[in-house]
Amino acid sequence: MSPLAQPLAQNLVQSVDWLAIAPPTIAAVVGLAVLVADLFVDDNRKALLGWASVAGLAASVIMLLPLLDGDRSTFCLTGDADVCSYTADTFTLAIQFLVLGGALLAALLSVTALKDADRGLPEGEFWFLLLSSAAGAALLPASRDLATLIVALEVASLPAFALVGLRHGDRRSSEAALKFFLSSVTATAVSLMGISFVYASTGTLYLTQVADRIQDVDGQLTTLVQTGVVLTLVGFAFKTAAVPFHFWVPDTYVGAPLPVAAYLSVVGKAVGFSGLILVTVIALPSYADAWGPALAALAALTMTVGNVGALRQQATRAYSAVRLLAWSSIGQAGYLLVPIAAAAYSDDAERSIGSTVAYALMYAAVNLGAFAVAALVGRTKARNRVSDYRGLYATNPVTALLLAFFLLCLAGLPPGIIGLFAKVTVFSAAVDAGLGWLAVVMAVNVVIALFYYLQWTALLFRAPEGEAVEHRVPAPLTAAITVTAVLAVALSGAPQLVLHFADTSLF
User: Fold this and answer.
1) What pLDDT score does 318 carry?
2) Is there a cis peptide before residue 24, judged by omega within 30 degrees of 0?
3) How many CB atoms are located within 10 Å of the residue 18 CB?
4) Do 121 and 167 meet the contact criterion of CB atoms below 8 Å apart?
5) How far apart are CA 291 and CA 312, in angstroms?
6) Please, are residues 466 and 377 in contact by the beta-carbon 8 Å criterion?
7) 269-277 and 90-113 are packed helices; what angle lies between their axes, rounded to 10 degrees?
8) CA 488 – CA 373 distance, rounded (Å)
9) Looking only at Cα atoms, what is the longest distance across the chain?
10) Which helix (H) or strand (E) holds 474?
11) H or E stretch including 441?
């Protein structure tokens, strides 16, 4: 080997920390194994693929535990161990727990849904796509360079398109997948153009190096880098379903299989928000005066349009429970944007970001719980209208009480203490950053949301119209409802379990 080739070979050799990358790696490997096994498993044993996928996701969650003892990084530059492509720190582990835990609960919902032959869902392909998307979503919060960030974003998104449109012969599912695909491809194209401008201006893809170099770019490149920052933020705003980039959400959630809608409502949002946090807080802190006001305006607009949209659903005669949850999720996205915007004005950006992490963990638990109950009702009521929940307490009192608890958590009312505390934490982040006007907008939106959350809750306890239908709860669905209920009750009893992220060093 020539002397010139030796340094190049040394730079190409990477020492891989397999423990650090174990959570997304396990999900990806199990996904490939399930796809191959599907070729050899007969139709009577297809259910084994689902349970293997559930076991794989559970193993991925368990592999987060050994990483709690300290930050770990891998795929680092040979000459600079502090510049890495993959870092497992507190922020990464919190989002990976949300993503993999959310995928695990969606998998439990899917085991029940796939038993129904009328759904027309091919099992092997379904589990492969779900695990592949979960692997990409788990990789994204650990990404510390723009190339890995975009690759993780696409690995999380591309299988999700197919999951939405996987139901054979369903026109509504196909339309939903097309809308989701077109909006997401547009977002990716805009993000890639923005990232290319940032790379052209700074000469690096590593987030920490971008943060250092972007402050000293040549004056002739100022317009280029500013355009790159704006385009990158617009691309991630699409992924978070922020207004005005939210138009795909209601139709996609309604057209997708319900477990997929539940997955997108939590994991899809986690992907967008974690990417947005990494780009703004780590790579572009020097441009806080640009992205701060933009995100504050997006937060106000998103929560208002989402909650008003949910409120307007009640004007229709037979509005869908899933569509109502879709509009609600847009409103919740507005709340999640508030602390990120506040980070631009705060002296302690990590505390503001911690408020978003805490709120996201609360939202994931209770929103997945609401979707789990919707999956139960949807087994006997194909249209899954909100009116179908009337008198649920008379036929299934435990499930009705749990749904009421989940809705009260989303509304931020006792006994849903975790929802109240999470909203107070987000509200405080806005006030502490001097965004009093945004805190007022949030308070108004919380009041608006109370109306449709409480109306749905009250409907559960009214006398049923006609003959009451008893809902039989399959074991996987029971497990999903139980896990979300335990999490929601535990967090309401000990909210510090997630609220401590607001006072923790995340990066």
Assistant:
1) 60
2) no
3) 8
4) yes
5) 31
6) no
7) 170
8) 14
9) 85
10) none
11) helix 436-460
User: What token pair was written down for 46?
Assistant: 């297809």
Q: What is the DSSP string of 220-277?
A: GGHHHHHHHHHHHHHHHHHHTT-TTS-TTHHHHHHHS-HHHHHHIIIIIHHHHHHHHH
3-state secondary structure of 402: helix
The first and second tokens of residue 486, run together, are: 């335990």
Q: What is the spatial distance between Cα 373 and Cα 361, in angstroms, rounded to a whole number?
A: 19
Say which residue the tokens 């992220």 belong to: 501
Q: Is 118 exposed, middle or buried (CB count within 10 Å of its CB: 0-12, 13-18, 19+)? A: exposed
Rounded Cα distance, 109 and 106, in Å: 5
Number of neighbours of residue 125 by Cβ within 10 angstroms: 16
Backbone φ and ψ of 245, nearest 5°? -105, 30
* Phi, psi torsion values for 74, nearest 5 degrees: -150, 170
3-state DSSP assignment of residue 338: helix
CB atoms closer than 10 angstroms to residue 301: 17
How distant, in Å, are the alpha carbons of 100, 107, 251, 323, 471 from that of 384? Answer: 27, 20, 14, 10, 13
At 85, list the tokens.
């492509």
Tokens representing 325 are 């949850």
- Residues recorded for the chain: 507
Query: Quick check: 262 and 109 in contact, CB under 8 A?
Result: yes
Peptide bond before 66: cis, by omega within 30 degrees of 0?
Answer: no
Q: What is the pLDDT of residue 70?
A: 81
CB 95 within 8 A of CB 41: no
Q: Judge contact between 460 and 403, C-beta under 8 A.
A: yes
What is the reported pLDDT for 290? Answer: 86
pLDDT value of position 2: 44
Number of other CB atoms surrounding residue 489 within 10 Å: 18
Q: Where are the alpha helices (DSSP H) in 114-241?
A: 123-139, 146-164, 171-202, 207-213, 222-239
The alpha carbon of 194 is separated from its chain's Cα centroid by a whole number of angstroms, namely 23
Burial, 444: exposed, middle or buried (Cβ in 10 Å; 0-12, 13-18, 19+)? Answer: middle
Question: Six-digit token pair at 56?
Answer: 């794989």
The whole-angstrom separation of Cα 325 and Cα 313 is 10
Phi, psi of 143 (to 5 degrees): -70, 135
The residue behind tokens 């207004």 is: 243
- What are 312-363's pLDDT values in tens digits? 876 555 678 889 999 999 999 999 999 999 999 987 788 889 999 999 999 9
Pairwise CA distance, residues 283 & 213, whole Å:
10
What are the residue ranges in the chain where pLDDT is below 50? 1-13, 117-118
Query: Is-contact 365 457, C-beta < 8 A?
Result: no
Phi, psi of 316, rounded to the nearest 5 degrees:
-85, 160
Token pair for residue 309?
A: 């949209």
239/496 Cα distance (integer angstroms): 29
Give CA 118 to chain center in angstroms: 29
Q: Is 359 within 8 Å of 335 (Cβ atoms)?
A: yes
Q: How far is CA 505 from CA 91, 92, 431, in A?
A: 8, 12, 21
